[in-house]
Amino acid sequence: MSLPDDRDMAWPPPGAVPEAIHTWRAWYAGNPAQLASSAAPPAKNKYARPFFFRRRQRQQSIVRQPPPVHVPLAAEIAQTSADLLFGEMPEIDVADAAQQRLDELTSGTGVANTLLEAAELCAAISGIYLRVSWDTAVSDMPFLTTVAADHAVPEFRYGRLQAVTFWHELPAEGRKVWRHLERHEPGVILHGLYVGDKTNLGVKAALTAHPQTADLEETVALPEGIPGGMLTWYVPNMRPAHDDTGGAQGRADISGAEPLLDALDEAYSSWLRDVRLGKARVIVPADALDAAATDRGSGRYFDVDREVFTELDGMSPGEMSITVYQPEIRAPEHEQTVLNLIERIVSKAGYAPQTFGLRVEGRAESGTALRLREAKTYQTLDRKRRYWNPTLKAALEGMLAVDRTVFGRPTAVETPVIIWPEPRETAQELAQTLTMLRTAEAVSIETAVRRAQPDLDDEKLAAEVERIREDSGRAVSEPAF
User: Fold this and answer.
1) DSSP secondary structure letters along 47-108
2) pTM exceeds 0.85 for this model
3) Is the distance from CB of 432 to CB of 366 less than 8 angstroms?
4) Pairwise CA distance, residues 306 & 300, whole Å
5) How many Å apart are CA 142 and CA 134, to the nearest integer?
6) For residue 192, how many C-alpha atoms fall within 13 Å in the half-sphere facing its CB?
7) Bridge-partner residues for 417, per DSSP?
8) What separation in angstroms does the CA of 205 have from each of 195, 201, 218?
9) Is 400 within 8 Å of 101 (Cβ atoms)?
10) DSSP 8-state code for residue 329
11) Which phi and psi angles does 325 have, rounded to 5°?
């Protein structure tokens, strides 16, 4: 139970963060410079080198080379994954005594937004840590925070998290690097402040040496009653890692699709290169140019708006040749290549093309038919939910435990049940279903209205049913005597 004390210790420790995570982070960030630096070492065959790496090599010998074009598909895949998981917050059900307080905790601390952001980063770089935090100077209730997988040194046993050390760099002047390390072990949280450089952890300093750690204690004993004895949990995006480098840390959605992403950027850059080179050009004899003064000195130019040309000495009109050159832009070929690559990448990530607006041309489809075409997406969604479910339950239970033990709330600590939302019927699909049921006389008007408008209370429901009867002529008035 201790933090590192070796001043020459490399940080992060070698192998603690799989190299693949840095590559996935670069694709998610979409910075061409990062992509070039995170590319694999150059192969003997120069054509086997990644596109961005080749671009970086060529920039050393070519002046004013247009930058490559990056298609942010990796970020879009991660965002889509998060929207599928937490675009609609799942229902959280606990015992009656704890339901109201848990609702206050989740709504008051923005748990829905935290989970949405966590799910996006989880899909992008292979996993995310959920952590229950508290700070009486900030909030009078515990709140949920996250730590990215590339800022943690975990210790797993049989795929289960036993301990973890988080770190982040603090603002500092000069070349010194200040790092705050936060280690979680069963029953305790340890804090340490270190001063080193970009690669070494350096020497341990007092927490008061930096304003962002000045109010922290070196050792925080967790109160009794914390389920599992820890207040941090790891959510792997999907397991196993394709190359087994991530181990228990899982893999990103784009794992295995990196060469295709590289090819997509190369194809899109080629497409825009065609556009750039496809500008019309006017080729004229040198004698057709007029002299003009420019900011760079005297020069010559051709006036493309000139309507009347003066015959030049020693040249007959037939010798004056003006040629307009318009290169062909291979738009259909590039578009077909780009769309094919996008479909391959999306499929490799575990999603149907329709989820990303592809292959939706043609006749309109019902919601049932569309869901059948998106079956692959729903299978991936169900798989991710199984990884999130136990961790989310533990994190919410941990919030109730801290709320009781640290803030003195009387609410009992209960394990919640997570009820994930089912795909909603479209208006067209609902109308078709109700029409068939009413035609077959399988449901009453009241049942149909209740299904179509589930938010109506009994009084409004009865009124709506009566209006439908009147509009359809089915209402029969009382006979007059």
Assistant:
1) GGS-HHHHHHHHTTT-SSPPPP----HHHHHHHHHHHHHHSSPPEEE--HHHHHHHHHHHHH
2) no
3) yes
4) 15
5) 5
6) 21
7) 93
8) 7, 11, 11
9) yes
10) P
11) -110, 120
Check if the beta carbon of residue 394 is closer than 8 Å to that of residue 400.
no
Q: Using omega within 30 degrees of 0 as the cis cutoff, is the peptide bond preceding 18 cis?
A: no
Question: Contact at 8 Å (CB) between 156 and 163?
Answer: no
Q: Which amino acid is at 462?
A: A
**Is-contact 424 87, C-beta < 8 A?**
no
Per-residue tens of pLDDT for the chain, all 481 residues? 578 887 789 999 998 888 889 989 999 998 777 787 765 554 454 545 577 666 655 555 545 567 778 899 999 999 999 999 999 999 999 987 799 999 999 999 999 999 999 999 999 999 999 999 999 888 999 999 999 999 999 999 988 999 999 999 999 888 899 999 999 999 999 999 999 999 999 999 999 999 999 999 999 999 888 888 999 999 999 877 766 554 688 899 999 999 999 999 999 988 988 888 888 877 777 766 777 655 555 567 666 666 655 555 555 555 667 777 778 889 899 999 999 999 999 999 999 998 888 875 544 455 555 566 678 999 999 999 999 999 999 999 999 999 999 999 988 888 999 999 887 665 666 676 777 877 877 778 888 888 788 778 888 888 888 888 877 766 655 555 5
Token couple for 382 = 């169900």
Contact 350, 356 (CB under 8 A): no
Q: Which residue type occupies 227?
A: P
CB 68 within 8 A of CB 265: yes
